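Worked problem 6 (solution included).
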Amino acid sequence: MSRRTLFHVAGAAALAGAMVAQAGPALAAPAGLKELIDRRKLVLTGARSAEGVPELATQLEGMGQTAENWWTSMDKAPARTSLWNDIPLTGIGQSATATGNLGLHFNRLYDMTLGYAVPGNPYAGNAGLAADIVAGLKLLNDTAYNPGIRAAGNWWFWEIGVPRKSVDILTLLYAEIPESLRTSLLAAVRWFAPNPNWRGRATSLAETGANRVDKSLACSMRGILDNNTDEIALGRDALSDTVRGGTNSVFTYVTSGDGFYTDGSFVQHSYLPYAGTYGVVALAGIAEIIAMLGGSTWAINDPKQSVLLDAIEDTYAPFVWDGRIMDTVRGRAVSRQREPDYVSGFGLISAVLLLAPGCEEPYRSRFLALAKGWLERCADQKLVGHPTQSLAKSLLALSVLSDASVTAAPAPVYSRMFADQDRLVHHRPAWGCTVNLSSKRIGRYEWGNSENNLGWYQGDGMTFVYTRQDPAQFSADFWPTVDPYGLPGTTVNDQVRASGAGGAGTGIPRAYQAFAGGLTVDGRWGVIGMDHLNHNKTLSGRKSWFFLDDAVVCLGSAITGTGGASVQTTIENRAYAQGKVPALRTDSRNRAMAPGDAAVVLKRSLHLEGHGGYVFLDAPGVTGSPEVAVVRRTGSWHDVNSGADTGGSKDNVTRDYVTLTHRHGKDPVGSGYAYMMLPAATHDATFSQSANPDVKVLANSAEAQMIQVGKEGLVLANFFAAVDAAGHAASGPCTLATHQTGGKLTVSIADPSRTQASVRITLPGTWNTLLSADEGVTLVGSNTVEVQLDGHGHQKNLTLGT
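Solution. The predicted structure is:
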């Protein structure tokens, strides 16, 4: 079957590297259980041998080396109590460490199983390897994973991690594993995760999102392997949560908690934007279930599947930068050395490619175009054949890259607000930007299980700037080397924080204040803000970001600290390979700075060759001056993640940082900052903006922050309280944008605080005609409108005339 044919198969079941799901008429006869096992094997190993495919030679070789490594290091002694001495199972059922080691045992056995099952690598079909895998499974089943063992430590290993690896190993070695062992191991899987609708063996905690999908896949697969058709249906129906009338269905929009929101947001663990990690796991799992069950008696038939399909473009795509998923929606996964942004991105691409061929138009064509565009633009990473990816996924990617009928989608250029996860993403032709906000609704960061140990300030306004000159900024050893007290965009004090290493469980500290969010204008510009109160209430301030065509304007006001700590706003903390810091121009003076050089105080501008410029604006409330320095920092991935199965290397890595810092001093009162970032700008553009900025700061106080872009007729503002500022009045906290063209004024209003039923806005000038408006907008007087808010921070738009 040619690559082109793979993408144009009409009919039902998944087949081959494209894994074509049901796309048309059902199969003439329902797929039998053996066929479903074979389909699952194809998802895990690929449609054809990778042998002889040049792009995959290194990956195939690496697969064999991994299998060899675990096989040769395996303890094969008759009296063994563990399979590998470095991950002992001593204390299983009582020790959290032993539980983590159990997960690692199954991971290694799975790697060995791939070596046996994937054609073309040196160990494919090796009978001795298969025999040792089977013996290893029996040891684990007899001593560490059976219904008699207590589920100590992290529940995830017992109910998701080990079951998923177990059913996949049993699938790949279906003919080699004795039926009695298969039955016994599946009994253990069933004991620890009997029903994918619930956590554990009780029915008190319903599973949601990615966890529900993981359990559904394992449940359906164990039913297939155990000839238990009721369990196949149970796994399928759990996706739709039929036992609770769809309350936690993955195909239904939610208004709170975990799941997909109508504005494109995706939340997991109740309080964190997580499309880039848990969201990808959920999408991939559903794609695999569809590929496995499509066209069979147990095919997914939920009429709301479009919720998932629409999420590709509404939830995932906005946060992809040239094949990378932005860290703003990856939670604690940012601390995982083996899971950088491009690996998460390839996971998304693979899931989209698995889904696409079975989708009706226009989904199918758009999904393939998106995936091809992401693959082609990720120029600095070889995603196809990458050692972190499976050969099956690499074969999927090769298929779409070689399909001349698929035209790659171009990079997006738009600004989009996601009110339900406190995120705005801004794509321009040469750069992109997003900011981590936090509120009473959305957490500052997630830590736990010794992951993301130093992530304290990630949600306090961390600002991510992506450029095509520097695509690997956040994946090239950024997290283990960046100063965790100096994340770009954050305002923090120097009080020492404790590492999260060794802490039990997980946590998502939420912010104390309600105001976080904003709006966009014409899909082109945007504004967000945050009422900031730090983790122990020793630092407060108001922060706003204004997203324009060529710049992001950042304002800070009312910055006040207590307790004797020094306070700083980090404007930038850009990482470079050791000794590779580019040329700088400070106020148009050329400089070659190196680690250890004295910091340079700036007056008007800084230009960083190959990255962009920074211009410091005249604004009320600004105190102090910014300074630039070059700092060499060394750390290890183990510092930021020492988790049982995700922990990083203890080897030190080093990066040089250009730090741009606005120091507010010790215990500041009412301090502020105002600057403009010009990503991808030349020095000439930076100098021009420094001499004559396009932007005027109209307000920068505790009550309001507002800018004007005269050439666009644009005013953007955050009101943190009822106030009249620069001729604009608000009856309460809100975000406001006005755009004047000709004799019309387009107005956008949102309430990021979600504390009001309505807000009244009075605008300068004379606007006495309501030309168009969303529902709930009333013109109550000349140039005054009252807007009924929806309670979710979503914006409303209206157009006024004279």
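Discussion: The chain has a mean pLDDT of 94.
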